[in-house]
Amino acid sequence: MIVYVNGETQEYAENITVANVIDSLGLTGKKIAVELNKEILPFQQHSTQMLHDQDALEIVHAIGGGQEDTFVLAGTIYHSRLLVGTGKYKDLEETRLAIEASGAQIVTVAIRRTNIGQNPGEPNLLDVISPDKYTILPNTAGCYTAEDAVRTCRLGRELLGGHKLVKLEVLADQKTLFPDVEETYAAAKLLVKDGFDVMVYTNDDPIAAKKLEDIGCIAVMPLAAPIGSGLGIRNPYNILTIIENAKVPILVDAGVGTAS
Predict the structure, then answer these.
(1) What CATH superfamily classification does 2-61 receive?
(2) pLDDT tens digits, residue range 12-34?
(3) Which helix (H) or strand (E) holds 154?
């Protein structure tokens, strides 16, 4: 006979009990809850409740929050969905402590910031956020043309020993810091062709997001609200549409306000 167990079709002999199924799954003695045909089945009835053809069982157990909640970027599995930056801290020690406390695995770095090591008289940012511990994500913050963004990414690749993962931002103006989508398209095409793994900042337009995915970007990062506004997601419908249409990770960027 056919029994559906957690949505999967299983074939069992006649005259089988719920306890028999639990045992066959290696769950005897485990802390579980069972639902039979959308009705809770008390533990005391597991050994006496007979199953029939086309019955549906749901068997659940408790897990830690977030277990197996992972995503993949450029072939690397990440368990934290939070990306953090390196600006606005009072010193490098505060930077280190904040990033450690965040649990983030990916840390963005503005390439043209001199404390990454270009100036031997300044502390080295990579001493406190080691590439051995974190994925360093160079970004093109402050770039307003495709040409500048591409040059910055190439500089970052040279600086970090061939590092290919970058966050592409091409801004339209200094007031709103909204993305210049046309320049972003142009930069993305050049960077993908040049072998970069591109995570790209864009607006919350589902068409633009899909086009950037089609260009070859490995992740799309639509804004939630203007950079620095802390307003949270202003257009959840657009963000949802972007996620539903995407085959690459979608990371909401800018104006989020709080990661929770």
Answers:
(1) Beta-grasp domain (3.10.20.30)
(2) 888 999 999 998 888 888 778 88
(3) helix 146-159
* Residue range(s) of every CATH 3.10.20.30 domain in the chain: 2-61
pTM of the predicted model as reported, rounded to 2 decimal places: 0.67
- Tell me how far apart the alpha carbons of residues 254 and 252 are, in angstroms, rounded to a whole number: 7
C-alpha separations of 138 from 44, 62, 106, 164, 249 in Å: 58, 39, 10, 9, 18
CATH class label, 71-245: alpha beta
Amino acid at the residue 171: L
CATH 3.20.20.70, the chain: domain bounds: 71-245
Q: Which residues pair with 167 in a beta bridge?
A: 139, 199
Q: In a 3-state reduction of DSSP, which class is residue 193?
A: helix
Enumerate the active-site residues: 167
What is the tens place of the pLDDT at every residue in 153-199? 888 888 778 888 999 999 988 888 888 999 999 999 999 999 999 99
Counting every residue written for the chain, the total comes to 260
User: Any long-range contacts for 27-35 (C-beta under 8 Å, 24+ apart)?
Assistant: 27/59, 27/61, 30/61, 31/61, 31/62, 32/59, 32/60, 32/61, 33/59, 33/60, 33/61, 34/58, 34/59, 35/59, 35/60
Distance of CA 44 to the CA centre of its chain: 42
